[in-house]
Structure formats: C-alpha cells, structure tokens
Amino acid sequence: MKIDPFDHRLTPARADIAADFLEAEIEAPKYVKGEHCRVLRGTLSVREKPEASARQSTELLFNERFIVYERKDGWAWGQNQTDGYVGYVREEGLGPDNDAPYSNEIQALRSYVFPEPDLKTIPLDMLHLSTRVRVTDVSGKYSRVDYGPGGGWIYSMHLCALNEVEPDYLSTAELFMGAPYGWGGRSSFGIDCSGLVQIALARAGITAPRDSDMQEAAVGEIVEGGLDAAQPGDLLFTAGHVMFLAEPGILLHANGHHMAVAYEVLTDFMDRTKDMDIPIRTIRRILSRN
Fold first, then answer.
1. Residue 23 · residue 31 · CB < 8 Å
2. For residue 290, is pLDDT > 70?
3. Structure confidence by residue, pLDDT tens digits, 218-241
4. Strand, coil or helix: what is 36?
5. CB 3.0-4.6 Å disulfide test: which of 20, 29, 149, 283 passes with 223?
C-alpha cells in the first residue's frame, strides 16, 4: 500500500489556494506563504470544514506547530507540523510561534496546569501525554512552563527530558485503558485507533503518520506468514483500523465496539467482524526508532 504524495489530508492545497512551496507541483490561482503558529490550548480540534458542526479529522496538542495559510470568519486553515495533517482550527486556539526549543515532555497520561505552584489553585488547563513544553523555572515540586502570558505550573514528576523516551510503547498504550473512543482524538479525553498508535510510538521516539492507512504503508516492516507469525507489539491492520497485539491472542485497541481503549480476545474480534469483510490484511513490526 502506498499513500498519494498529494493526498488531501497531507497537502495544503485547495481549488482556490495552495501553500507557496507547492507552486512547482500543484496548479492553483493563488499561492500563500504560511504563518508559523503554535497551539495555545491543551487540545485543539481540527475540522474537515470551517464549521462548528463539521467532523473532527484530528486533534492538536498544546505547543504543536501549525502553519496557517488562510484566516477567515474565525477559522484558520493550515497544516500541523508534527504529522503534516491539514485542516481547519479555531483561530483563538493559535498564537505566534517564537521557534524557541522545547526542553521537556509530558510523560503522564495528563497533567494539570496550575496558575501557581500549588495544587489547591484552580487549574488553567490540562496537558496531555507527549505534549512538549519549555520549562522556565522550578519551585519545589513544580515546574513553570510556557503556558499563557505568565506561564503555568506542572507537577515536575509528570515531566521528562525530550530524550527520555519510553521504549515500551505497549505500556504507554495501556495507560489509555478505558479512555473513551473519539474520532480524530489524540488524548485520553478521546482517542481513536491510529491516534493511540501514534502517541504511544511518539513516547518511544518513533515518528508515525496520523491515520491507519498511512501507518499501514509506512510504520515498521511487513511481517510475512500471517497471524501465526505475529508477535506482541506488532500492529495488525484491517481496512480503516489498526490494533496492537498486546500478547498472544489478545488485542489492545481504541475501537467503536467498546467505545473505549480496551483489550479484546483476537478470536472474539474475528468472530464479531466476520460478516463485515474486514480481514486482518497487514501485520507490521516496529524494529527500531526512526
């Protein structure tokens, strides 16, 4: 399986406008130089259309870089720099990017941002696993990070250095057990199958694309021999879905059947989907960090 290099999900181009770097490759009536921004909230929904009722295609996390190519009616259209995904976000969720390097990453499933280094204060927001931050000060058990105009405080034990990866991505995925299934989600507030894989691998220092078909085309190496050759940690793909093989005969996946991240017996999954014509068609093994 191959992904079109000009797939609309990854290409900042529409019938009326395109990013300037695409001028030699895509014909458009107008080419625009992007405006470099970053996400100001714990999560920011990306929509397929500039409408509040439009379906969420993915989700941005705090401090992710997002290049804006158009602003109109309170919506910004652009591209996430983490995984290249294109879509519409609310303008107020973005701020200018100063390109300063991040120093730390959230290693807890989620962590409050407090206005003061005091757990009794009212939290400003919640930051999520794999979110990158810039630590500017330390007070007792708390670290000040680059949240808002005056900064916010995170419990320091919930932070790790950027190079402090967790190679056991299955253990990371297990942190999400019971988290609600959310189409396009990338946090424990709501996460989908490919979001779970992407975030778990990110904590292991492995870059993965956003959607399951992209992951099926690019992550790790193909395992020949079918299910008999699969090992714990492998990714199992059906049409439109990806799952971890957590242990022999047991799946771990975010799914719409349980509406949650859950374990499922492999034979149970195969029995309940046998009439859907979605066999397990690809198995991939993650061998090393990218």
1. yes
2. no
3. 999 999 999 999 999 999 999 999
4. strand
5. 283
